[in-house]
């Protein structure tokens, strides 16, 4: 079993956080969508933004792959604790439609799949579409 320590992120973690963002994007086959720099991450995450709260999970992995060692459950539990401490009534997770393992975990922990129960779809404005919209 892997040992996990979950803590508040510090500004010095930005390089590692960006590496993890890139690794996740690669896993999700979305590498081309990562356009943030370490400097922008530092400004967004540590520039006094009251809506941004970053946690870091430090792992001392057991031999083998980290999957199935309860790390994801521990991280989500910590997010729930922080959200409640901050006065939040909910938090949301995004997952790609092919990632059944993540969906199964979230449901097992008590999350509702809003696509199934309420029909919600996620939308994003970015780049040229955002610029065009702002001009109107």
TrEMBL record:
Residues 4-135 form the N-acetyltransferase domain. The keyword Ion transport does not apply. It comes from the Eukaryota. Signal peptide: none annotated. InterPro entries: Acyl_CoA_acyltransferase (IPR016181), Diverse_Substrate_AcTransf (IPR051016), GNAT_dom (IPR000182). Pfam families: Acetyltransf_1. GO terms for molecular function: N-acetyltransferase activity. SUPFAM superfamilies: Acyl-CoA N-acyltransferases (Nat). Keywords: Acyltransferase, Transferase. Belongs to the acetyltransferase family. This is Diamine acetyltransferase 2 isoform X2. It comes from Callorhinus ursinus (Northern fur seal).
């Amino acid at each position: 079993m892997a040992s996990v320590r979950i803590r508040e992120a510090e500004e010095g973690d930005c390089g590692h956080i960006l590496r993890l963002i890139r690794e996740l994007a690669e896993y999700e086959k979305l590498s081309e969508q990562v356009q943030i720099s370490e400097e922008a991450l530092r400004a967004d995450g540590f520039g006094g933004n009251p809506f941004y709260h970053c946690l870091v999970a430090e792992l001392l992995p057991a031999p083998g792959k980290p999957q199935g060692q309860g790390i994801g459950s521990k991280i989500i539990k910590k997010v729930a604790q922080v959200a409640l401490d901050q006065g939040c009534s909910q938090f949301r997770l995004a997952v790609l439609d092919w990632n059944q393992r993540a969906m199964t975990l979230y449901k097992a922990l008590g999350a509702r799949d809003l696509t199934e129960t309420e029909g919600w779809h996620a939308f994003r404005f970015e780049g040229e579409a955002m610029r065009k919209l702002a001009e109107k």
